[in-house]
Specification:
The protein has 218 residues and is an alpha/beta fold. It has eight helices and seven strands, in the order H-E-E-H-E-H-E-H-E-H-E-H-E-H-H. Strands 1-7-6-2-5-3-4 form a seven-stranded mixed beta sheet, with helices on both faces.
Length: 218
């Protein structure tokens, strides 16, 4: 897969950054250079708002592929738009083998794939458990995993549809690592748990260093 961004993707990213993010408080991108310019990478952000995908995508110059909940692709205009930007559907709450197959294919082609480790939006207070699927993809494809902290998107667009406010949004790109770097347990279950623990700890650390109060589950 080419590492060059499509003209359409670049235009849409600019449009979102200027017309929405720019008018709702702006975006600060920290350590964006940690995202490799080429090669397979799983971009793994904290998920606290519907604004997280565009914020993370606008914070980096590299084009990201991403999965979105299947029902969005049934919405007129929105569905075709998402597909044109490299999104593909996933059925949440069930084993979606097609989404897994598509994810593996993209990573094997050298894409940068955005996957929320929690699988769904959290409450902004405690990070949810890391989905087993991300460990499987990292192990089977050998892709690097990039932890990403997110701060402020839940103030601009709260999960509970509460009052929205202008606020600076911050995306912090951590240091990439591989499954083998941190997964060295006595067996596969322990190895997977070590991987998940490290990823969650990095995401929380990055977010807290820049103003979030998110914490790890007890």
């Amino acid at each position: 897969m080419s590492s060059r961004n499509s003209t359409w993707y670049v235009f849409c990213r600019w449009l979102v950054k200027v017309l929405y993010i720019g008018t709702h408080g702006g975006l600060r991108s920290i350590n964006e250079e940690n995202l490799p310019r080429t090669g397979a990478v799983i971009v793994a952000p904290l998920h606290i708002s519907h604004l997280d995908p565009p914020a993370v995508g606008c914070g980096t110059r590299r084009q990201l592929q991403f999965m979105s909940k299947g029902e969005l692709f049934k919405v007129p205009i929105l569905g075709p738009l998402l597909r044109s930007l490299g999104a593909f559907p996933v059925r949440r709450g069930e084993g979606d083998t097609e989404a897994v197959r598509k994810s593996m294919q993209l990573l094997e082609q050298g894409a940068a794939l955005l996957i929320f480790p929690e699988g769904t939006r959290g409450d902004g207070i405690t990070m949810g458990p890391v989905n087993r699927g991300i460990a499987m993809l990292a192990k089977r494809t050998g892709a690097l995993v990039l932890p990403v902290g997110v701060v402020g998107t839940d103030i601009v667009m709260p999960r509970d549809k509460g009052k929205r406010r202008r606020h600076l949004m911050t995306v912090i790109y951590g240091k990439p690592f591989s499954y083998e770097d941190v997964g060295k347990g006595a067996n596969e279950k322990e190895t997977r748990e070590l991987f998940a623990k490290h990823l969650a700890a990095e995401i929380v650390r990055l977010s807290r260093e820049h103003g979030s109060t998110i914490s790890l589950p007890e």
